[in-house]
Amino acid sequence: MTNSRIAGLGYYVPENIVTNDDLAKNMDTSDEWIQERTGIKERRYATKHKETTTTMAKKAAEIAIERAGITNEDVDFIIFATLSPDYYFPGCGVLLQRELGITKTEIGALDIRNQCSGFIYGLSVADQFIKSGMYKNILLVGSEMHSMGLDYKTSGRNVTVIFGDGAGAVLLQPTQEEKKGILTTHLHSNGIFAEELALISPGTHGGYHDKEDLVDFGFPDPSEHGGIFATQTMLDDGLMFPNMNGKLVFKNAVVKFAQVINEALTKTGLSKEDISMLVPHQANLRISQFIQKTFGLRDDQVFNNIQKYGNTTAASIPIALTEAWEQGKVNEGDLVCLAAFGSGFTWGSALIRW
Ligand code: UT7
Question: Which residues are catalytic?
Fold first, then answer.
């Protein structure tokens, strides 16, 4: 039986540190409020016009590829998870392929849009491709440049203070070693909650506009046939910024994190006592602490770095996993549990025998 294993991993965060006090210069918030509710002390922002979601991904990917002991040309498939792409389309997968200089091989590149659980979704897809024998060197990246599209006024404070920029990558390869590598993955969603954490404009939904307000794209009658992709109202009402029902997200997150971790343990016949290291999506330190308590894990069994980087959505798990590994906290034979919950709502888990 072939399993997939993480053969190399890497991360990149921009140099520019933005503290809670920096944010408080533009909006009504405070270091005390942010730390108390989220645990976040600071986050990184990419340098605009110099860095993008893809350029950060490239830096993380190169480290992962090198650590796997292969070259860029050996990568035979790319999976890219992000909610903050360089372009509306095409997705970042092909841009990363170009940045890595591996266009000659014309390998496939897949874009994943599952927000905070994008990395787990990508891991699950990669795992199936490797198990089936289709690919042997899959590059999976989560990268986000939130800073390019946040509301820095008080109106956006409940969302903006949480997010940060960064990228993480893993290189997945097959292993024949029994009970090693990715043991199981579990994916879930519930679209009933789609708008509870969302950036809904611009888009094809067509709501939120007055006839006079329509941008004229040349349609005969835009109110009937289109021309509603972008409107002044969308800008005025802040609909081009992410919106979040924080309390609802929090309440669902703590329940679903626990459920999906238990699902993975049950599937593999393992128990919470077997977990060596839990690397949760870095959504909010209070959520991670809640999960830690639920499973009775010690501090050294849960890895958190949200204090330094904020919530980097699809990048948060690979960044945290890489840091944990670099610090010697993930070792051969360890049972590593990954879990995420976020916009969609979508959530998932993975168990990896390192
Ligand atoms: O990874 C994606 C998934 N996202 C998450 O997992 C986030 C989950 N949710 C959360 O982490 C929390 O809901 C937040 C940290 C976002 C917010 O904490 P909360 O305790 O749920 O606050 P709230 O939104 O209910 O707001 C409470 C008060 C409100 O003021 P009033 O109406 O009571 O006067 C907010 O306006 O706190 C206010 N508030 C702030 N005050 C200072 C909201 N954001 C801020 C802020 N600074 N940044």
Answer: 116, 281, 311
